[in-house]
From TrEMBL:
It comes from Faecalitalea cylindroides. The keyword Transport applies. It comes from the Bacteria. This is AI-2E family transporter. It is found in: Cell membrane. The lineage of its organism: Bacteria, Bacillati, Bacillota, Erysipelotrichia, Erysipelotrichales. Keywords: Cell membrane, Membrane, Transmembrane, Transmembrane helix, Transport. It holds the Pfam family AI-2E_transport. The chain crosses the membrane at residues 10-27, 33-58, 79-101, 175-195, 234-256, 262-281, 288-311, 331-359.
């Protein structure tokens, strides 16, 4: 029997290595196949992600409804909690767009209006600075820019470039229609999953009992609970931390009489959801917005945001996100660098809870192994004494 067991293991390794070699030699076809599969399932994947995020809100609302003594409310608590969670997310999105988009357009118009004046002031400053060198002054004064023509050319270039890109791949209408249709399908799938999520839980337990056995299923269930806890804590912690940071940023800007406090506070908080680099992106956008009104004040905003970021990194983040996720800082940085290079911003966002889950599972595995070794040592010492 041992001989046949060894043969089975050897054949398993041989087949696995052969499949790996074939895949490496045909990377183009493998990539195309993966692309076809991804296009087929991406709506379901995005729907599952939407369902997971909505479920974080929905569970809390449903627990509140369970305290009600009204039988009708208890009967339709799932529907009420789902509708309430959808309304909450929709209101948040509407609130952000209603604040950010009009203000961005206003800031862009202000920049177009004041940029020529900033250019003229810079020319005067440089002319006064090099007044002892007439050749440099003459060259500086010779710099002229037709701002209207430059803006028209820039807008035309962007429009033509976007049109060429869209025309070379898909028609713009088709892209918009497909995106809207896929989004609607993802939301519908998420709703179906949330309304009947117990069915999927029962299916998991049935398949686990049939094909895994009790011990393996219990281990897998424990691992899934840890993964769920890591992702839930990370998403919830990031949202709370973003809300706190955005509120502090907007409040400080309002007290310091800086322009666009509400809009910049919302943007800084929202973009700060992206780990590590979100703060820098939000700060750059905020500094640009303040620059359109007062260039010197934009430096004050930068100093204020740096102080706020230090407070956020050393006080808010460790308490709100770090303790809940349970991943050391050095691993967070390594995760952001590796996953960011592999998958960009989605990789940064999903990488931290993924690595946190692996870290926790590895920690539990190592602790169990250490306990087994200690038990064996005690048993060996006991047997020697006997």
């Amino acid at each position: 029997m041992k001989f046949f067991d060894i043969d089975k293991k050897i054949w398993t390794y041989i087949i696995g290595i052969a499949i790996l070699v074939v895949c490496i030699l045909n990377l183009d076809k493998v990539g195309q196949t993966i692309g076809v599969i991804w296009n087929a399932v991406k709506v379901l994947v995005f729907g599952g992600m939407i369902a997971y995020v909505l479920n974080l809100v929905m569970n809390r609302i449903e627990k509140l409804l369970e305290k009600s003594k009204n039988k009708f409310v208890l009967k339709i608590k799932r529907v009420i909690s789902l509708l309430a969670s959808l309304c909450c997310v929709a209101l948040i999105i509407y609130f952000v767009l209603a604040i950010v988009i009009p203000t961005l357009g206003q800031a862009g118009q202000v920049l177009i209006d004041v940029l020529p004046q900033y250019f003229n002031d810079t020319i005067k400053f440089l002319s006064n600075l090099f007044e002892n060198n007439p050749h440099i002054v003459e060259m500086i004064n010779g710099l002229e820019i037709n701002w209207k023509e430059m803006i028209d050319q820039t807008l035309s270039f962007l429009g033509n470039g976007l049109g060429n890109v869209l025309g070379s791949t898909f028609n713009m209408v088709n892209i918009v229609v497909n995106s809207v249709f896929n989004t609607i399908l993802s939301i519908i799938f998420a709703i179906y999953v949330l309304l009947d999520k117990e069915r999927f839980i029962r299916l998991y337990h049935r398949l686990g009992d049939l094909y895994l056995g009790k011990d393996r299923k219990d281990k897998l269930t424990s691992a899934l609970k840890i993964i769920n806890q890591s992702f839930g804590s990370f998403i919830g912690g990031q949202c709370i931390e973003a809300t706190i940071l955005g509120t502090l940023c907007a409040t400080g800007m309002y007290l310091l009489n800086m322009p666009y406090p509400l809009m910049i506070g919302v943007l800084v908080g929202l973009i700060n959801i992206i780990p590590m680099i979100g703060a820098y992106i939000g700060g750059a956008i905020g500094m640009f917005m303040v620059f359109t009104v007062d260039p010197m004040m934009s430096l004050g905003f930068l100093v204020y945001l740096c102080i706020l970021q230090q407070f956020e990194s050393n006080v808010i983040y460790p308490r709100v996100v770090g303790s809940s996720v349970g991943l050391p800082g050095i691993y967070v940085m390594m995760t952001v660098v590796v996953f960011g290079s592999l998958a960009g911003i989605p990789g940064m966002f999903l990488g931290i809870p993924t690595v946190a889950s692996i870290y926790k599972l590895a920690k539990i595995h190592i602790q169990n192994k250490e306990k087994e070794l200690e038990t064996k040592k005690l048993e060996s010492k006991t047997s020697v004494k006997n």
